[in-house]
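User: Here's a chain of 258 residues. Predict its fold as tokens.
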Amino acid sequence: MQLKKHIPNSITCGNLLCGCLGIMASFENQLNYAFYFVILAAVLDFLDGFTARLLKVSSAIGKDLDSLADMVTFGVLPGFIMFRMIKFSSMIAGNEVSLFFLLFSFLIPVFSAIRLAKFNNDPRQTDSFIGVPTPASTLLISSLGYILFGKFHPSACMDSLSIILPANDPLKGLQFLNHPYYLCAITVVMSLLLVSEIPLFALKFKNFGWSDNKVRYLFLIIAVLLLIVFQVSALPFIILLYILLSVIINFTTKKKRN
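Assistant: Prediction complete.
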């Protein structure tokens, strides 16, 4: 029984370890590996709660540990990924950006901390979310890092910075984001969405009936299709779809009430 209650916390520590390794990868300019660690951490973040419910164990320490792990993995790590992205994009543009623009990236850890604190103390967020969850924000930012900069190693060959995506990549058009101003704008928007009052649906199934889960099934079907066609390049669009569907649901619900 004593061992059983530590299993979810051990999984949470795995999430934390992934965050630390992802930060180390971003320091080494390996944004592809940072992205892989984010994916693994997101899986572990799901599994720790799932395991706790399955084993019927919970504790105040587990809740605090989960928030601390999420702060590192889904707060600090995306900040460092964005820092590298802004720095790389300025090299591509041919001029170094000022420290002011580089510091924009650390809005993400600050607003992530506020988001996690609000989540822990907001009774409205038991079955849904208010504001974009930190894992969703991190998946978007890290996938952009992978798409735009992760398919090569700039530390090995800085001259190859102009070759970001292969010619046959279906989303080569995303290269326009290789500019520090666009990346700073993404940082500001995502930071504000983290602490916004926009209700977002959670992917928690209380039952598997169609009528109660139409939106969830629709989202998952579209997400799987996008992943099959575009693979990793689909992730930013999947996160945007998640936000858009939530806004539409909220709007239609309010309209019905009125």
